[in-house]
Amino acid sequence: MARLVSSSLVRGLVRSCRAPSTAENPVIIFMKGYPEAPRCGFSALAVKVLQQYGVSITARDILTNMKLKESVKAYSNWPTFPQIFINGEFVGGSDIILSMHQKGELKGLLGDSAQKGEQDSAQ
Amino acid sequence: MMGSRGTSVVLSRAARMRQKLQSALEASALDIEDVSYQHAGHAAVKDNANETHFNIKVISPKFEGQNLVKRHRMVYDLLTDELNSGLHAISIVAKTPTESGS
After folding, report:
1. pLDDT score of A13
2. Which of A31, A114, B25, B68 is deepest in the core (most CB within 10 A)?
3. Does residue A2 form part of some domain?
């Protein structure tokens, strides 16, 4: 039962980031540690890449919540962390985020929120 | 699925990973680098755990027409047993022969 509860929690978290028109909260990362204090190099890398776009990032630490960890893995069918969701869609882990960043694909995916972020950080 | 388990006991994780990836992906190039030392003392790594973190670079014709998520899933699926037995993280570079220019 606990599993069901937390898998709907994951779905809720991911869904809450699906706000294309306002793009208030497009990015969620399930990671080891927190953006300010990542506890794994791969999580640190993913956060660093995402922060280049100035978007607001919702982060959840899976090391301190085993139930969440297992639920996220089951939800995305992806075995490792970090896991990044953008606009409610699973995007991948740190390798994929980095690769998309290098190929210039991340900007399009983040859309208006990224541009807004860039403007904000330019001021 | 469970076919040739008998041999894997004596092999290192790196060797098992190589076997699984090489045969299933028909890789034309496969680099497996153990980078566990970079993660020693890592939050989720228990004492004395080794062979927990790897960099994998694989070139396979089977990646043709597959996006990155699908390519990574193919690698993860092949390494399910390892991920369930202490392998924590792998960094994956997955290219097609065309993309790698070889």
Report:
1. 77
2. A31
3. no
Number of folded domains that form chain A: 1
* Domains identified in chain B and CATH numbers: 11-42+49-100 (3.30.300.90)
In whole angstroms, give the CA distance from residue A32 to residue B76: 19
ipTM for the complex shown:
0.76
Interface A:B, Cβ pairs < 8 A: 47
Confirm if B53 and B79 have CB atoms less than 8 A apart: no
Range of the domain at A45: 17-114
Q: Do B80 and A79 touch (CB under 8 A)?
A: yes
pTM above 0.90, yes or no: no
List A38's β-bridge partners, or say none.
A33
- Looking at residue A111, what is its pLDDT? 76
Residues from chain B contacting residue A93 (CB–CB below 8 Å): 72
Q: Give residue A112's Cα distance to chain centre.
A: 17
Task: Give the minimum alpha-carbon distance from A122 to chain B in angstroms, rounded to a whole number.
Answer: 32
Q: How many angstroms away from the CA of A117 is the closest CA of chain B?
A: 26
